[in-house]
Amino acid sequence: MAFLGSSLFSKLAAGAIKEDIFSISGDDPLKGIPDLLNALGGIEQFVRSGNSVGVLVNSPWKERGFYTDPDVALSVIRLCKDAGAGKIICYKPVRDGYWESSRYFNEMESIIREIEYGEERMTLTIPDGQELKSAEVFRVFTETDVFINIPVAKHHNGTLYSGTLKGLMGVSSGTTNRFMHSPDGEYTSSKQDYLAQCIADLNLIRQPDICIVDAIECALENGPRGPGKTIRPNRILASTDVVAIDVYASTLMGINPADISTFKYAGNHNLGKSNIEEITVKAF
C-alpha cells in the first residue's frame, strides 16, 4: 500500500511549501477553506479526478467545541468534489443529525447522500510500534487514494490534548482503543504516557495527505465528551505535517506543547515537527 503522494514530495523537494501551517478565520469555512488549501498548492495537488477520498471527522459528541464543526468537514468535501473526486468515504460513521446541523446542509444535501462509511474491519501489524503492535481498523482506511484528517482541537482527559494524532483512534475498533487506554483493556485516563505512545504508534499505519484542524471553538476541559468550558480561537488550520499542526493548535488553547507526551513520541517516530520553536505559521 503506497499512501504518500509523489506530487506532495515533489513540491516539498522544490521548496514550494515554506510554511509548516496555514491559518484562516473560521467565520465562513465554505469561502475560506479554498484559500487555505491554495496556500498548500491547491486541492488539485492532493486530489485528482476520480480519486477516492477518505475523511476522518470527530463527530460523536453533541457539545460545541467537542466535535468537528460540520461546516468545516462539508467545506473540505465540497472542495474535493469540485476537484473531481470520485467516492467520498467518511471512515467513521457520524452521529445522527451531524450533517443536518451544518449551515450548508441544504445546498450540499445531494453530496451528503453520496458519502459512504466504514463498516468492515481488518487487523494490521505495526512493526515499529513501541506499545501498540497491531490495530483493528476500518478496511476502507487502507484503500482510499487520499486521506484527509479533520479533527477538532480540544482537551482530552487521557492525553490533555486531542487533535490530528489522537483523532486517528476514530478509525480503530473499540477493542483496539480499549487496549490503547490500558494493556488490561479498560478505558482509563490514568495511563496517560502509555496512551500517548500507543497513539504515536497508531499513526505509523498511515499519515494524512492533508490535515485540516477545526480550531474555531475548542473545549478546555472534560474532553472528549464534555460538557465544559470552551475557548474560541476562531481559526481553521491546514498542514501536511501531522505533528506540527497539533503542536501549534495546542498553543491556541493555552497549552504548553512540552506537556503533551503524544507530541514527543510522534516526534520520536519522525512523523513531523514536535518543537514549537521550529514550526512556521502563516495566517490570512
Describe this structure in words.
It is built from 9 helices and 12 strands. By secondary structure, the protein is α/β, with parallel strands linked by helices. It has a single domain (6-11, 18-283), classed as Rossmann fold, CATH 3.40.50. An 8-stranded mixed β-sheet has the order 4-3-2-7-8-11-1-12, sandwiched between helices. Strands 5-6 form a two-stranded antiparallel ribbon. Strands 9-10 form a two-stranded antiparallel sheet. It is globular, with a radius of gyration of 17 Å. The model is unreliable at 1-15 (pLDDT under 50).
Main-sheet strand order equals 4-3-2-7-8-11-1-12
Measured distance between first and last alpha carbons: 36 Å
Tell me, briefly, the overall form.
globular
Strand content: 15-25%
Q: What number of domains? A: 1
How does CATH name the architecture? Answer: 3-Layer(aba) Sandwich
Q: Looking at CATH, which topology would you report? A: Rossmann fold
CA-based gyration radius: 17 Å
Q: How many runs of DSSP E, i.e. beta strands? A: 12
Tally of contiguous helical segments: 9
**Structural class by secondary-structure content:** alpha/beta
Order of helices and strands: HEHEHEHEEEEHHHEEEEHHE
Describe the largest sheet. Answer: 8 strands, mixed
Helix content: 25-40%
Mean pLDDT: 93
Provide the low-confidence segments as ranges: 1-15
